[in-house]
Design goal:
single chain, 5-stranded antiparallel beta sheet
Length: 180
């Protein structure tokens, strides 16, 4: 093929790429605003009063599993990262000012489909954490997901870390350590 014959397709591809890049850049702020609104709505369900606003507070404590802390009038939503069976898990845990867990949601994970993935979708598993404090334990207060004991322990450690942050308890939760 001659160079002239290749120019038209190359120019067309470059023009299309430029258009896609411009559209992507234009839509990015809209997508970010929608994500922020969705996060705010989810956080609102994590505390009993369904607060409309949260303030992100800096966290410089010793528990390395705590990534972010959001404060509302009646409690906190704590973002915790823990090591699951198949990789890191990110959870949001709602904790009242008294240190009682009021909500748990798994935001991101790589757990096994049909087993550990139940940590995100099995309501009866997640409901067990409501009303607990920083000392929940699989096999005592918490029934593990069938076939997913490692994942169940990981979620429990994350919830305990969040509750311990609010109460000021110095638990060595080791939420990022795997205790097979």
């Amino acid at each position: 093929m001659k160079a002239k014959e290749l120019m038209a397709p190359v120019i067309t591809i470059l023009a299309a790429a430029a258009v896609l890049l411009a559209v992507s850049a234009g839509l990015r702020p809209i997508a970010e605003n929608q994500e922020a609104a969705a996060q705010k709505e989810i956080m609102g369900y994590m505390l009993p009063s369904r607060p409309a606003s949260f303030t992100e507070e800096p966290y410089d404590g010793e528990d390395e599993s705590i990534r972010r802390v959001f404060k509302a009038e009646d409690g906190y939503v704590v973002e915790v990262e823990t090591a699951g069976y198949a990789g890191p898990m990110i959870l949001w845990v709602g904790v009242t000012n008294e240190g009682t867990v009021s909500g748990v949601t798994v935001r991101n994970h790589r757990e096994t489909f049909g087993l550990g993935r139940g940590a995100q979708t099995d309501a009866s598993f997640l409901l067990q954490f409501l009303g607990t404090a920083s000392e929940a334990a699989v096999g005592e207060d918490i029934d593990a997901l069938t076939g997913a004991t490692v994942t169940s322990k990981a979620v429990t450690r994350a919830v305990n870390s969040a509750a311990a942050f609010v109460t000021g308890a110095d638990v060595s939760s080791g939420a990022t350590e795997w205790e097979g």
